[in-house]
Specification:
homodimer, 371 residues, alpha/beta, Rossmann fold, Rna Polymerase Sigma Factor, Chain: A, eight-stranded mixed sheet, two-stranded antiparallel sheet, 14 strands, 34% helix, EC 2.3.1.31 (chains A, B), acyltransferase (chains A, B), amino-acid biosynthesis (chains A, B)
Chain lengths: 371, 371
């Protein structure tokens, strides 16, 4: 490990300020956990904002002291990597609604001294972006060379372009969608129902007591099925058994069952069930188009785009992204679209580093040159 | 309603007989609920066996007295229909493990006088077929003109051909698979976990008490997502809201959420959670191939095949069925394969009646003529 240790920092919104939310409500206290990698140049023109997915956090790369696992996109962020920390100043912040340091349902409500639980207001992807904007204002950053992210991170990318087009030189939405379609809402809703069906959930009021772990584990298992492709599941597990012979019992018998169980159980140790509700809801609300024609959404936008999809991603499909490409092109926007051939399904953005690196590196260099 | 009322009949295995199961265990008492439509001809050569899917039952067509809903495949079974009751003698029986009249976990264990619950032995698709075979023996039927069914019904079709090739003149597997692949097991397993996570499940011992309804509802919701295509969900629901405006709350907001909730809630009124565990497990065990080459499985088979798939069925895909077609053809078996263009996903076998009717009617007539 030649890379330096990184530390999560915390931005606190000054007292008196508010974060207005799409719902009409507001947050009067706001904390944002964030990390930075690399150095800001004198002109502040080398800023890259990385946005994380549903279960991600601010810890995008490098190591925390006393931790043997690097950040969630470590192979993509570092010296000489796709997001080259010798050239660029990388910022990654935890979304609001999460449980990884930024304000969310497990934060202490200053008015009661207790965790918010369900009294935390519903947040949207637009709210997440506006919270990040407060952090950038605090850091004195007025231009973003590129905003990039996969899955829900990609939704934030699109929202950034829509809200602050003049700030964004370029955008890299990866394995994402311009709105949540019915099937995507359906999968999230079933996950939420699994959590809310757990008696330990107790209407969100379980902090300091038993957490709704079984419900959250089921929700995560559903999620995992959508993150893999049928093909990759088959290649990895097929019909392999945990033991030599079938036991004819309801215990875990197939490898795939064991894998899902393991994924579910390990998730509940690191994630809060209420945050799962809040963040999936934010994704379901996501619709960059709303009642508009998709083409009109991007009127006046001049940010360059690199859109990356994966051939076997059946959650956020290449087909959905091609509609986005078309809408951008109809606005004369400079768009590069690349569908990477991969059998890894949606998870590919966390696996297929070589091709992503080549595409992104080149795209960022070209963008930087146009400054 | 010009059609006659039908009545469910019950076959009871004679005392002293056993139904040996694939697990090595056996059932010493066995009831099979079944219905017949049409009349058996003198030579007993006009028998069609219809096999139902996961949540189906023996009530395939016509009306029960005092019931305003016809059987589950009513548009396909009746005078002049695909399975023409003026020509053929139709038998449909409820699978063992179910809760619709045949022996299953909610049956009374004669040894204890209480419902079996989890002490009911695990059953497989082969066991279901062997139970049906007892019924056919009882009815004195030695030849089956055709065995047909969709989804898990199609698995029984393939198993019938494998177990009793000499009895089966023809087979019509619809919207099915020759084995459960990892993703199919994964969806079932998550459903089972949702049920078993419900404290009311109580290790299967809940009869006479509160049933694990919330867990079963979640399981059914997951199932429903896999029964529809993303396209049909989008056409039917899209991002439509139940109310005019977003409420920014965890209550049902999108139409698709309401639909899934409704499907879940109505299912728990008519289905037993333990049966859901047993039957999904039987499906997961289904693997007509086992350790064999798929081609070798069908050696010596001379039954004619009509295999029907639906273009948007992503649960049991056309691609999987083409592997089956190939294996049959390599044995010189007479196979007609038809992929019906439909946006309805897996559910299409319960929706697309016109094309299925044409295909099946013609296929049955031709089979009947070869006698």
């Amino acid at each position: 490990m030649s890379e330096k240790f990184v530390e999560t920092k915390f931005y606190k919104m000054p007292q008196g300020e508010l974060l207005n939310l799409e719902s009409g409500l507001f947050l009067s206290s706001l904390t944002i956990a964030y990390e930075t990698h690399g150095s800001l140049n004198k002109d502040k023109t080398n800023v890259i904002l990385l946005c994380h997915a549903l279960s991600g956090d601010a810890h995008v790369a490098g190591y925390h002291v006393a931790d043997d696992k690097p950040g969630w996109w470590a192979p993509m962020v570092g010296p000489g990597k796709a997001f080259d920390t010798e050239k660029y100043f990388i910022i990654c912040s935890n979304v609001i609604g999460s449980c990884k340091g930024s304000s969310g349902p497990n934060s202490i409500n200053p008015e009661t001294g207790k965790p918010f639980g369900l009294s935390f207001p519903i947040v949207t992807v637009k709210d997440m972006v506006n919270a990040q904007k407060k952090l950038l204002d605090f850091l004195g950053i007025k231009k973003i060379l590129s905003v990039a992210g996969g899955s829900m991170g990609g939704m934030q990318v699109l929202q950034w372009v829509k809200e602050y087009p003049e700030m964004i030189m370029s955008a890299i939405p990866i394995a994402t969608t311009y709105k949540h379609f019915a099937q995507q809402i359906a999968f999230n809703e079933v996950g939420r129902q699994a959590i809310m069906a757990d008696p330990a959930w107790n209407n969100g009021d379980y902090y300091g007591k038993e957490a709704p772990s079984r419900g959250l584990a089921v929700a995560r298992m559903i999620g995992h099925i959508t993150y893999m492709s049928s093909e990759s599941m088959d290649a990895k597990f097929g019909r392999s058994l945990k033991n030599k012979e079938l036991g004819y019992e309801f215990a875990t018998e197939f490898e795939i069952e064991g894998y899902l169980g393991y994924r579910g159980d390990s998730f509940v140790k690191r994630f809060d069930a209420n945050s799962y509700l809040y963040i999936t809801k934010a994704m379901d609300y996501f619709d960059i188009q709303k009642d508009k024609n998709l083409i009109d959404v991007f009127k006046g936008v001049s940010s360059r785009f690199l859109i990356i999809t994966f051939s076997s991603d059946w959650l956020y499909t290449p087909a959905q992204n091609k509609e986005l490409v078309r809408a951008l092109k109809m606005n004369g926007i400079d768009v590069t679209y690349c569908e990477i051939g991969s059998s890894y399904g949606h998870d590919a953005f966390l696996i297929e580093f070589d091709e992503q690196t080549k595409l992104i590196k080149h795209f960022l260099e070209k963008t930087f040159k146009t400054l």
